[in-house]
Amino acid sequence: MRVAVVGLGLIGGSVALAARERLEASVSGYDPSEEAARAALERGAVDRVGKTLPEAVAQAEAVFVAVPVRALPEVVGRALEAAPADCVITDVGSTKRAVVGSHRDPRFVGGHPLAGAESSGIGHARADLFEGATWYLTPAATTSGVLYERLHRLLVGLGARPAAIDPETHDTILATVSHLPHVLANVLVSQAAAALEAGGERLPATGPSFRDATRVAGAPTEIWTDIYLSNRDALESEVERAIEALERFREALRDADADRISAWNEGAAADRRRLLEAQFAGAPLFELRASVPNRPGVVATLALELGRAGVNIADMALYPAPDMTEGVVALWISGEPAAVRAEALIGALGFPVVRA
After folding, report:
1. Which residues pair with 138 in a beta bridge?
2. Do 346 and 302 meet the contact criterion of CB atoms below 8 Å apart?
3. Rounded to an integer, what distance in angstroms lies between the CA atom of residue 265 and that of residue 79?
4. Mean pLDDT lowest among 8-22, 89-103, 248-262, 304-318
5. Model confidence, pTM
6. How far apart are CA 207 and CA 223, in angstroms?
7. How far apart are CA 287 and CA 316, in angstroms?
8. Is the dihedral of CA 94, 98, 101, 102 positive or negative?
9. How many C-beta atoms lie closer than 10 Å to residue 105's C-beta?
10. Contact yes or no for 21/15 (Cβ under 8 A)
11. What pLDDT, on the 0 to 100 scale, is given for residue 73?
């Protein structure tokens, strides 16, 4: 496998390390920063660095674009121009609508690994960064099924759990579970610092709840300013919802309404349990085989339909017929209830499906 990584920071460097160590891939890299490119070579993240982006991606079978969100549409376009006709190109950006809306090339699949660290840069890259992490993919009707399968298998090889999702849903969800928490963490630390300064106190020892809640405060500005702005409409809506929730809690405090506060707290505890159960539940794998026509968008349709239903595709494979008019998509689904649901969903799309 020949992999190219454009942008050799924390995520790009971790992709490169994982591809070399886990897949024994040959990895070429490119970064406009000569210092980052040199550091990637010294760390053994890449086998070689290209002097230009086209040089780095010229012979790749898969390209990962790991640059700041604001630069993604332009850099993905350059990668598509330079990469081979049978190469899959993806990105790792935290917002998806802008980059996906800019490119309808069958070779491009938007992506976003839910993995990272408080520190940025190639020096903090790790080959195990994606172990067990959800990696969102945003296939479109124009996406090549063969290339989508290649990318899906590659990500599984990196230790990730690929999940298909449409760009709009992705950005709405991430505004809630990622972008808003960063906003709130910044508010909390600034509020605490202002209170201490006003009282003339030195910073006291903080408990674990404050440390956990503010772990992501002050995340790299050059990355997060772009994220906030690129998803500003969805994030603004979530900020409004958070303000409304805080105002309801303030009213309960003002009224000394113990019952309301208790119900609010118990509800949050129940919500957290449900989220954790959904995240960490493990289950055996079941194989489904769907017969599909060989036409653009079939694999994307299957992946997105199952993704919308919360069904995780642990792995997949394509088996085209000799005349290439049709084929079989094999899907490995985690858990029998999910497999039953997937079987029904695939059948409802009009594709014959059997459990292997």
Report:
1. 110
2. yes
3. 49
4. 304-318
5. 0.84
6. 28
7. 9
8. negative
9. 18
10. no
11. 96
d(CA 172, CA 275) in angstroms, rounded, equals: 17
Q: What are the pLDDT digits (tens) for 270-312?
A: 988 877 666 555 567 889 999 999 888 899 999 999 988 988 8
From residue 101, how far is each of 95, 117, 172 by CA, in Å? Answer: 11, 28, 16
Residue 281 has phi, psi (to 5 degrees) of -65, 130
Please compute the mean of the pLDDT values over residues 14-20 and round it to a whole number: 97
**DSSP designation for 71:** G
Crossing angle between the packed helical segments 221-230 and 232-254, to the nearest 10 degrees: 90
> Over the stretch 37-84, which tens digit does the pLDDT of each residue have?
999 999 999 999 999 999 999 999 999 999 999 999 999 999 999 999
Q: How confident is the model at residue 105 (pLDDT cuts 50, 70, 90)?
A: very high
CA distance 263 to 274: 17
Our CA angle for 65, 279, 238, nearest 5°, is 70
Segment holding 289, helix H or strand E = strand 285-293
**194, HSE (Cβ side, Cα atoms, 13 Å):** 6
User: Residues of 15-34 as b/e, b for ≥16 C-beta within 10 angstroms?
Assistant: bbbbbbebeebbbbbbbeee
Strands 134-138 and 108-113: antiparallel
Q: Give the neighbor-by-neighbor strand order of the sheet with 353-355.
A: 313-320, 326-334, 285-293, 353-355
pLDDT at position 324 is: 81
Residue 238 pLDDT > 70? yes
Question: Residue written as tokens 């959800």?
Answer: 134
